[in-house]
Amino acid sequence: MSQTQVKAFGNNKTPTKTILHTAIASWNGFIYQGMCALYVALDILYHGDDSHKEWMLGLESYEDFAILDNTGQIQSFHQCKCYRNSKDFTDEFEKMESKRKYWNSEGKCANDAHLYFHCNLNLNYSNGVSAYKYHNGMFLASPKDIYLLVNEMVQSIMNAQNIPGSHEAKTERLISLICTHVSSLHQLLIESPAETNSFNSVCAHPVKLQKLMDLITNTTVPLNKKEKAFCYLYYFELYLNECMTFTQHVNDGRLNSFIDVLQTMDSDNILNLIQRINPDVNVNDSNAERELEASARPNNFYQVMTDTLEEINLQKMMWQRKGVLYSPTTLGQDMGTARQCAKIVSNDNISSLLWDCNWLVGNVKESVEDVREESNKITTMSIDYSKFTKPEKLGLITIKDFNDGKY
């Protein structure tokens, strides 16, 4: 690239290093950035013709994401920002304009390529940047709005082409596709850590829109283990984001730190952690997604993470007191304690959990010292207790008792 030696570029003097930077190694904005990208790609497929299937979606390369035609020409640059409070993004608008000028000078885009901003706030736009307009006529969208809009767009494509199947299931496959693609880019950057090589590596691996269309048109098959992990992660973060948006607790930073670490894990560790914090649900079951998506779960987890007095150990993703491990959970007060414990010990996928920690911290009604003993009160359940060989007890503890140090 001929301009890489230029230290700053454009009227706004944006450093070339900024223009040629990819943040994919710390990419953690899927609930907004990734879903905005998915929506725009689907909108092109819905309104375009067959030739648009050869267009491409570039993630964290030329911008937060960019749309490229079949020749690799950038058709539009997109940046995404989701904040609780008003913020001045003039510097971001200036950088977008500079990036367009740079790539125009490189023959990569037209001088009037679209500059779109996706945001949940009303902004005063400048530098040729405009708010992206969604199919419902709105220019603002929250993470939950984007999720619903993506579902609607998938349904519209299916209706237009008489494609059978569940649009929710197909949406989940699309979510998994984008997440696994980002994960593969992370691995790619590990192998080429130099800044310029990193940027070039990411640019060289866009997602073809045809691949998205194939997932919509083909018969839906069950998600594999890796796809499930990323779907769980998406829904978990989506609903936690809602909790933080509407509650705004002083300890919200703990949740952000927890999620940041969670997003650095591989799919196996994500699934293990999701299983541990949802001990009453078998994450391998075909209907597990529906149970895990229930809004009460992230609400309970939010209470646990923000109302506990201690900072969690982010290396273990648990609290540790003198060798005793306490795991956060999504458990709540929606059922009796004995039945709740029975669901935990009857979970065929939970035996390894009994070796991981000593206490489950939940937004629960009461504490119990041994979930197995408590579950014995449910005489209608047939449980093979022989598979549980851990000598220590696994207890269930309320937030208050955890804070008071009673156990």
Radius of gyration: 24 Å
What portion of residues belong to β-strands? 5-15%
Order of helices and strands: EEHHEEEHEEHHHEHHHHHHEEHHEHEH
Number of helices: 16
By DSSP, the count of extended strands is 12
What does this structure look like?
There is one protein chain. The chain is α/β, with parallel strands linked by helices. The protein folds into 2 domains: 8-217, no CATH class; 225-404, no CATH class. It is 45% helix and 13% strand. The chain has 16 helices and 12 strands. It has helices at residues 16-19, 30-47, 90-105, 143-160, 167-191, 195-203, 209-217, 225-247, 252-262, 267-277, 288-292, 296-307, 337-345, 353-356, 371-375, 399-404, and strands spanning 8-9, 14-15, 56-59, 65-68, 74-81, 109-119, 130-131, 207-208, 319-321, 324-328, 359-362, 395-398. The strands form 3 sheets. It has a 6-stranded mixed beta sheet with strand order 7-6-5-4-3-8. A 4-stranded mixed beta sheet has the order 9-10-11-12. A two-stranded antiparallel sheet has the order 1-2. Strand 9 (319-321) and strand 10 (324-328) form a beta hairpin. Helix 8 runs antiparallel to helix 9 (252-262). The chain is globular. The N and C termini lie far apart (63 Å). It comes from Succinivibrio dextrinosolvens DSM 3072. This is ABC-three component systems C-terminal domain-containing protein. InterPro entries: ABC-3C_CTD1. Residues 129-363 form the ABC-three component systems C-terminal domain.
Question: Can I get a quick summary?
Answer:
By secondary structure, the chain is an alpha/beta fold. Helices cover 45% and strands 13% of the residues.
